[in-house]
Amino acid sequence: MDNHKIKIAVGLSGGVDSSVAAYLLKKNGYDVFAMFMQNWNDTAGTLHGKCSWEEDRLMAEMVARKIGIPFHFIDLSEEYRKRVVDYMFEEYSKGRTPNPDVLCNREIKFDAFLKAAQGLGADCVATGHYCIRKDDGDIHRIYAGKDGNKDQSYFLCQLDQHQLGKALFPIGEMTKPKVREIAREAGLPSADKKDSQGICFVGKVDLPVFLQQKLKAHYGNIVEIPQSYYDGRSFGSTLEELSTPVSYCEKDGRTIGTHQGAQFYTIGQRHGLNIGGHVEPLFVIATDIDNNLIFVGEGTDFPGLYRPALKILPEDTHWICPDEIMKEGEDRKCLVRIRYRQPLQKATLHCRRNGMYITFSQPQRGITPGQFAVWYTEEMEMQGSGVIFE
Fold first, then answer.
1. Confidence of residue 205 (pLDDT cuts 50, 70, 90)
2. What is the CATH code for 220-305?
3. Which among 131, 157, 200, 334 is annotated as catalytic?
4. Residue 351 known to be catalytic
5. Catalytic annotation on 157?
6. Which residues contact 338 (CB under 8 A, 6 or more apart)?
7. pTM surpassing 0.85?
């Protein structure tokens, strides 16, 4: 098909990655227009990003003018509040740690934003994600980006075939330095703009302040679990037993301080405990929302920080391609990461009636309920993902 006949909406964020994506598409003859989305209308001070969206919008408009493409502004703040922010509050209230960027891509960029772009005549949308889409007939596959330091496929782990079929990732085969080089050579205003930090399209956020807007502070005890707790203790051998986190109670350790609410803390957290008198740092190893307790252990190698397996409920298991779906009773070797930027870990998927279990070759540090576990093939194809249940 003639490129001029393909109309593409670029999600222009004001950053260098989406700027170069738009520039390359325009250079290759596509009919390109830019769309900047406002994801948060913070009149109450709930979220306050150090890099405000107004500044990003101004930069995006400057980039669009430089490239010579139409610029559109769209307010998706209501959709974002309902489909991302409310979900975050709900998950944290349960003592789970959600990933808003994964939700933003699934619910906003490749759903609400896509529909708005199609309303303006777009055939598909393009973003500045570092990942690669490859088509196998009618099946759309997604692979890790060429730049291992910038691979962002993790954040797209919940996309489906329809969404992928309408998505383009123009810089997926490039490295970040190359993207910067292209931006400078093209004279793009965003060429030297620092990468954004924080929640998707919102900015850098003081998370405790954000959570306290709706989750009330409630003082409780911080309980330190000793190393001796694990001496000679067996934690099971079945998939269900291996994936179930250890449950602690106050009598298992000693109270060493207080906190303002167990829902404000996450597994593996180090900062915000404000407790001294230890040779090594303290880390959160578990929370008990019902009893408002936080359990901590001393040192980065504390046994309670590590687990050999995790579980994903059937309804929370997502497959990207229909030809990759596992059958009940099937086991499959794969590579897994349980957080963005974590090096891929050797693991085995176990598809069972009551859920998907993942067992790791080496115990994993800080397995966190609410986060996403994402699995890949040796060829770096991302096959699927799931919300960590426990």
1. low
2. 2.30.30.280
3. 200
4. no
5. no
6. 310, 345, 364, 366, 367, 368, 371, 372, 373, 374, 388
7. yes
